[in-house]
Amino acid sequence: MGFLKTKVLPFAIVSLFGIAFIAVSARIWLPGDMIAPAPIN
Prior knowledge:
By secondary structure, the chain is mainly alpha-helical. 78% of the residues lie in helices and 0% in strands. The protein has one domain (2-31).
């Protein structure tokens, strides 16, 4: 259990934040019409 707390858990947290950061920063490179909300009608 100590191995999970010291090795796996911090790596999982850092990976989660990394994925979230990549997803947010990817919006910068998208064309402007893809960032806008979808039209309703």
